[in-house]
Amino acid sequence: PCPQVVLSRQYGSEGRFTFTSHTPGEHQICLHSNSTRMALFAGGKLRVHLDIQVGEHTNNYPEIAAKDKLTELQLRARQLLDQVEQIQKEQNYQRYREERFRMTSESTNQRVLWWSIAQTIILILTGIWQMRHLKSFFEAKKLV
């Protein structure tokens, strides 16, 4: 089940809708079929086609120009502003991803360092124990 339903629609065998989110962030798309599971196993097909558009590609500029009565130059300026805004959003997202990747890399590097230190200590302790054990063994056998 979806955590918060923003839009809910019911269609017949086919349907189409457009939804524009006004809040940024992660969105989930939940699809439910009202057909029974037995109908699907009996040879029925369920075909879903999703065409998701994100960013300035979702704007219908001819419709915007007609609605706001914009000239060609004003429309091009609006398109450029939308593209610049989309580029800024993409850059911010890439900065965020780079920061998370750097934090993950530093954490992994620190864990590898501590693991190698622990392995070295175990190896040295095992070597010391083996030398003492062999020394006591050879002394007990009176070979030394």
Structure description:
- This protein is an all-alpha fold and about 140 residues long.
- The protein is about 55% helix and about 0% strand.
- The protein is built from three helices and no strands.
- The protein has helices at about 35-40, 60-70, 70-140.
- The longest helix has about 70 residues, at about 70-140.
- It is elongated, with a radius of gyration of 32 Å.
- The termini are far apart.
Short description:
The chain has 144 residues and is mainly α. It has helices at residues 37-41, 61-68, 72-140. Helix content is 57%, strand content 0%.
The assigned structural class equals mainly alpha
Percent helix? 55-70%
Bin the strand percentage.
Answer: under 5%
Count, helices: 3
For the CA atoms, what is the radius of gyration? Answer: 32 Å
Distance between the termini: 76 Å
Number of strands: 0
Low-confidence stretches: none
Order of helices and strands: HHH
Mean pLDDT: 81
Question: What global shape is seen?
Answer: elongated
Largest sheet: none
From the structure above, extract its key features:
single chain; 144 residues; mainly alpha
What topology emerges from the helices and strands here?
Elements (H helix, E strand, L loop, with lengths): L36 H5 L19 H8 L3 H69 L4
Protein name: TMED4 protein
Keywords: Endoplasmic reticulum, Membrane, Signal, Transmembrane, Transmembrane helix
Family: Belongs to the EMP24/GP25L family.
